């Protein structure tokens, strides 16, 4: 069921957040680390909806900190400490899982996060399949800008040499539509799969 999947995803993301905290907290000047709150599944056999989730109520301004799609520009993500640390958490998970998994939809109040999602490549990662389209991973790679917390953790920049070269080339290359170059690289099957996912949402 969707509810069980939601619990599974959030609690898996929570385990990654704990590992991230264990690595980041001891670093001088890092400070408080975002926490994903636990979500509990309860079974109510007499109820029409037999499964429900219970979690701590977050009081305060609810903010979305992570990139959901390229059109969303969230200044609180870029400018707030919690937002920057969430972006670093995404980068850290991405690097830890060799680009196979990304925690998405990081949102919550201050450093307490809930309703998160996970994107994995189609085959999943270590037996775990995410609940978000793997296009989120591609998007993260394209849009992530490292900040001081990424540097503190020694994360590798996602800006590849290929992108740097493209900036250096003459203005003629600007006329090439980017989409056509992407399509050539991606196998047809994967492209259809992605289109299918994006049309569902």
Automatic annotation (TrEMBL):
InterPro entries: a-kinase_dom, Kinase-like_dom_sf. Residues 170-182 have a biased composition (Polar residues). Pfam families: Alpha_kinase. SMART domains: Alpha_kinase (SM00811). Residues 1-158 form the Alpha-type protein kinase domain. It comes from the Eukaryota. Residues 192-201 have a biased composition (Basic and acidic residues). One of its GO terms (molecular function) is ATP binding. Residues 161-201 are annotated as: Disordered. Keywords: Disulfide bond, Immunoglobulin domain, Kinase, Serine/threonine-protein kinase, Transferase. This is ALPK2 kinase. It comes from Pteruthius melanotis. The lineage of its organism: Eukaryota, Metazoa, Chordata, Craniata, Vertebrata. The gene is Alpk2.
């Amino acid at each position: 069921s969707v509810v069980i999947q939601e619990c599974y995803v959030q609690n898996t993301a929570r385990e990654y957040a704990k590992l991230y905290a264990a690595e980041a907290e001891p670093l001088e000047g890092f400070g408080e680390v975002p926490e994903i709150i636990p979500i509990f599944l309860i079974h109510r056999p007499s109820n029409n909806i037999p499964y429900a989730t219970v979690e701590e109520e977050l009081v305060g301004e609810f903010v979305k900190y992570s990139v959901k799609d390229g059109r969303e520009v969230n200044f609180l993500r870029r400018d707030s400490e919690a937002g920057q640390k969430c972006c670093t958490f995404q980068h850290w998970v991405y690097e830890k899982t060799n680009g196979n998994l990304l925690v998405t939809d990081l949102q919550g109040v201050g450093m307490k996060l809930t309703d998160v999602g996970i994107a994995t490549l189609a085959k999943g990662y270590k037996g775990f399949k995410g609940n978000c389209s793997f296009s989120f991973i591609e998007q993260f790679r394209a849009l992530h800008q490292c900040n001081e917390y990424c540097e503190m953790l020694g994360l590798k920049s996602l800006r590849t040499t290929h992108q740097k070269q493209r900036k250096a080339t003459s203005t003629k290359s600007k006329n090439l539509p980017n989409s056509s170059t992407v399509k050539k690289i991606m196998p047809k099957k994967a492209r259809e799969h992605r289109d299918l996912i994006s049309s569902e949402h």
